[in-house]
Amino acid sequence: TDEIKENGLRVFASLAAAADNKVPLFQTPGLVDALVRAARDGATNEIKANGLTALVNLAYSADNKVPLFQ
Description:
Blueprint: H1 2-17, H2 19-26, H3 31-41, H4 45-59, H5 62-68
């Protein structure tokens, strides 16, 4: 359901806020693509917002900034 997606993405956004998680999460195969799809195509504004928040949190890591845009 949309509520499950919203909550799952909220968890990823929260995990991505922790400095120790940023690089490992970024390196998880398919995660960034899934977050981009959620932010772009999510069925609700909450899904879109949570996907984007997770991406923003991952982008705060200097180690992720260049690979994010390659």
